[in-house]
Design a protein that fits this description.
Layout (H helix, E strand, L loop, with lengths): L3 H22 L3 H21 L3 H24 L8
Helix pairs in contact: 1-2, 2-3
Amino acid sequence: MVELHLVILVLALMLGFVASYLAVTERDLLKAVGFSSVQAIAYAIVFYILMAPDIVLAYVAIAVGIYSALLVFAISKTERYEVV
């Protein structure tokens, strides 16, 4: 029987990869920031499963909190949609 933490690890990694792809290909910059936050949360779950709680605390605070807020502020000063 496959252990539950390995299944959660694989699902979180897959979610992180999909969110990373969507963040890179998205033309709406606010949606891209949202996908980047989802990716950061998925990787925080991975770090937690790998028993690195100190990295989780720093990663969530920086990647989800400060980084996302800074990007939303920067996008508010520019155009929301990427121009080709």
